[in-house]
Amino acid sequence: MSTLVKIPAAETPNYLTEGRGIRSWLLTTDHKRIALLYLASVTVFFFIGGIFALLMRLELVTPASDLVSPHTYNELFSMHGIIMVWFFLIPSIPNTLGNFLIPMMIGAKDLAYPKINLASWYVFMLGGTITLYSMFRGGVDTGWTFYTPFSTIYSNTYVVGAALGIFVSGFASIMTGLNFIVTIHNMRAPGMTWFRLPLFIWSHYATSIIFVLATPVLAVTLLMVAVERIFQVGIFSSELGGDPVLFQHMFWFYSHPAVYIMVLPGMAVVSELVAAFSRKTIFGYTFVAFASVSIAVIGFLVWGHHMFVAGTSIYAAMYFSLLSYVVAVPSAIKVFNWTATVYKGSISWDTPMLYAIGFIGLFTIGGMTGLFLAALGIDVHVTDTYFVVAHFHYIMVGGTIMAFLGGIHYWWPKISGRMYPEGISKLSALTVFLGFNLTFFPQFVLGYLGMPRRYAAYPPEFQSLHVLSTAGATILGAGYLMPLIYLFWSWHYGPPAPPNPWRATGLEWQTSSPPPKQNFEITPVVTRKAYDYEGMKDELGLV
Amino acid sequence: MNSLQLLPDTASTFAVQWNWLFWMLVAVCGAVSTAVAVLLIYWTLRYHRKNDNEFPQQIQGNIKVETAWTLIPFILFVGMFAWGAELYFKIEKPPANAREVYVVAKQWMWKLQYTNGQREINTLHVPVGEPIRLVMTSEDAIHSFFIPAFRVKQDVLPARYTTLWFQATKPGKYHLFCAEYCGTKHSGMIGWVYAMEPHEFERWLEQGGAEGSLASTGEKLFHQFGCSNCHHFDSQGRCPVLTNLFGHRVRLLDGRTILADETYIREKILRPRAEPIEGYLDSVMPTFEGQLNEEQLLALIAYIKAIGPAPGTQQPTSSGTSSQSLGQQPGIAGPGATSISGSKPGDR
Fold first, then answer.
1. CA-to-CA distance for A444 and B22, rounded, in angstroms?
2. With left for phi above 0 and alpha for psi between -120 and 50, is residue A107 left, alpha or beta?
3. Helices A159-186 and A114-137 sit at what angle, rounded to 10 degrees?
């Protein structure tokens, strides 16, 4: 990509060795170190949320409510949702891989506002701590959706505490989004034009727009929930003169775009993986780039599809249904382009590629079942059932977490300076894929049969499918533990990584592994497009 | 462990149509997903890298291919949208001759009442082959009335009425679930729907209603709460005449007209001065907010329905476009009245 490939000498300190001690980490403004702070934090949140999920799945092995009380079960799914959505999925890829890679991919030394970047991590941790504190003080039982008037009048749990934590962490999202937008606009290296940007950047740019525009609406909504709950000011509760459906509009105006906050960065990663492990430029680069932007824009106009049976007008429902189909088009375009990229490529089956292929498969199923939910008449039956639960887990877990793990493996040599062990990591990718499908595919059938979501106890005819799902969840849990263990191991014992182990394009591969604090010894000058594997071939002298 | 069930009961007219669309979607989406999966796996095997120095010929893209896989999905999607919307219209528009059942939801039970006064809790008996329309409200949080075998679901909201209709096709016992999370015992807010042969249903219905029909309960309340002191049945009272009111459009002081449906009557009882009616600017009606519970309100509504014209000729349509001849008294609009564009909660 760049004409200058300069590898610093081995003894030059890299970002990990430059400055030691806890203080140098807690006061760092280096985007790479902040990315690692985020990585550690979201990993902890992921496993907390995962334990809640595992307890739920154990409860659901039997139809009766026996392992935990119904109230505890309700708290488990609420806390699972809150932790996973706001403290794992939303920050997972943007704040770790995005934070680490955006400056490197555009040839910059850091993000535009390094101190705001560090501040965002503190704000995020403050929000997370408040939420965890409310959870362990007594929990919250409203579901992650906080539907009124249940959340404002009828719930006797720590609603305000949990909402406050989310409210605070929202500022971290806004700071990150703002930082990315300014960085991508202003800090690109000489020659790095918009259409030479890796698709990772385009997707993160789209994500950042949603961060900045949607998060304030969530903040306002949660604030109103707190005001109604504490001061009995009628906003959402009809008893106090408010309208409960208004809450749903406001909540989904944020939370539907938030789904795209969760999946666009996954798409960002997959574009990089498919190109690198096919050694081919992404088929239809501009279509994929603009698909990201159109998803971000149209994603703001579809929130009402969560409310087809909520008591809104049938004409509004038709509008939201049609636009939901429109927003599915760019996602379909992406899937087709990734598939076409593989055609006549040079495909390696390294672990990141396994995750990428897993992503495409699971995201396709998730997206296709979204078409069922967007069909108004079909939605009447399957909404609020396990069909919806399965659908969004295919997108957010099958999609985002597969991409997250694929990305972590792909850039692990760059992040840690070490190679991960290939054999066991292939096994983990396979375990996650199989465990995931066994967990969530039966849930499509459950929802189709009419099993409502958020049920602590259920009629006995649903038991077989629930047992399958729980068996899958155990396998999935094992699949997630494996990378945690071997990646830790490889941090110390893995073989040292060369600067570009994959022979991939991208500026991040043109500097040492791990990179120096300033990323590049000399600011690179970009003369080629992203994914220029012709040029890579020339550089390696393989004509 | 219980046997594995893979197909849901199909026991309503709507459920039959629902199955068709569902399996059509399974076929189309299944075909496309399989094609993507097969190509992806085949190509990754076919073009597997032989050695690390291998770099393939680059393909930038192809505008024709891009256009094709943008337009073809879009056309398919529009088709899915249209079919789904058509189905939705059917389930949102109850037929005029539907039998009404009133539903009051609360944490964590369903209270149901028939027009003849028969009541039940967490069970619903319905005749096969007859459209049933449920008029539902909640006393607390949002609930959702869900009968999987009929493929119908509708959220039940506090302080307003939502409706749900279906026509059972197959006698049997089917699940009734609350589908909107409503607190601790949400998963206990379940019951059964019994679809019965019409003559069995009639026999069942006769058993109850000892306290008289719902409308007669409403009539007692109408006198008990002093409504009859003003609302005379000639035009001499100080208040609008209620005969023939239900299902007609009422002209408001600001010139708009509004359909007198269940939600309207509820609003007028609880907040009579909120939107003044033409001719009754100085409304003297006191508010009954906090004095009537949901069941009493429904009884009053049933009574006001009953004092309209003969049953069956004057059922409201939820679209609010009733074309029957309109009433004479002040406050009830003529045929030229314009409707309020879909903003009223009860207007669906």
1. 13
2. left
3. 160
Higher per-residue confidence, B251 vs B311: B251
How many whole angstroms separate alpha carbon A15 and alpha carbon A30?
A: 8
- CA of residue A507 relative to chain centroid, distance: 24
Asked if the Cβ–Cβ distance from B43 to A339 is below 8 Å, we say yes
Are B107 and A371 in contact by the 8 Å Cβ rule? The answer is no
Question: How many independent structural domains does chain A possess?
Answer: 1
pLDDT in tens, A190-218: 999 999 999 999 999 999 999 999 999 99
Nearest alpha carbon to residue A444 among A421, A410, A468, A479: A468
CB pairs under 8 A between A and B: 299
Q: Classify A121 as helix, strand or coil.
A: helix
- B2-54 residue pLDDT tens: 566 788 999 999 999 999 999 999 999 999 999 999 999 999 999 999 988 88
User: What is the predicted pLDDT for the residue at A314?
Assistant: 92
Give the C-alpha separation, B76 to A457, whole Å: 39
- A6: in domain: no
B29 with A369: Cβ contact below 8 A: yes
Contacts 24+ apart (CB under 8 A), A24-31: A27/A118, A28/A118, A29/A110, A29/A114, A29/A115, A29/A117, A29/A118, A30/A110, A30/A114, A30/A517, A31/A99, A31/A100, A31/A102, A31/A103, A31/A110, A31/A111, A31/A114, A31/A117
* Distance in angstroms (rounded) separating the CA atoms of residues B234 and B185: 50
State the residue range of the domain holding A165.
22-539
The 10s digit of each residue's pLDDT in A111-154 is 999 999 999 999 999 999 999 999 888 899 999 999 999 999 99
* Cα B339 from Cα B348, distance rounded (Å): 13
Q: Report whether pLDDT(A432) > 80.
A: yes
Rounded mean pLDDT, B120-129: 95
Dihedral (CA of A414, A420, A426, A432) sign: negative
For residue B149, what are its two tokens?
Answer: 């075998």
Helix (H, G, I), strand (E, B) or coil at A327: helix
Q: How far is B337 from chain A (nearest CA, A)?
A: 21
- For residue B47, give every residue at least 6 positions away whose Cβ sits within 8 Å of its Cβ, in sequence order, or none: A278, A342, A343, A344, A345, A346, A347, B56
Question: Which among A140, A144, A381 is the top mutation candidate for probing chain B, defined by the most B β-carbons within 10 Å of its own β-carbon?
Answer: A381
User: For residues A146 and A251, is the Cβ–Cβ distance under 8 A?
Assistant: yes
Quote the pLDDT of residue B281. Answer: 65
- B221 compared with B190, residue with greater pLDDT: B190
Q: All domains of chain B, ordered by start, with CATH? A: 8-21+71-212 (2.60.40.420), 214-348 (1.10.760.10)
Residue A248 inside a domain? The answer is yes
Q: How far apart are the first and last CA of chain A?
A: 16
Residue A522, token pair as written in the block: 């000399």
DSSP class of residue A188? Answer: P
For residue A13, tell me if it sits in a domain: no
Q: How far is CA A508 from the centre of its chain?
A: 21
Q: Which residue has the higher pLDDT, A413 or B225?
A: A413
Q: Residue A406: which CATH number?
A: 1.20.210.10
Which of A150, A252, A463, A505 is the best mutation test for B, with the most CBs of B within 10 A? A150
- Rounded to 5°, the CA angle A38-A421-B47 comes to 105
Specify which residues B48 forms β-bridges with.
A347
What pTM value is reported for the model? 0.90
Q: Is residue A311 part of a domain?
A: yes
Residues of A in contact with B89 (CB under 8 A): 314
> What is the rounded CA–CA span in Å between residue A407 and residue A382?
33
Both tokens assigned to A192: 């790095």
CA distance B337 to B339: 6
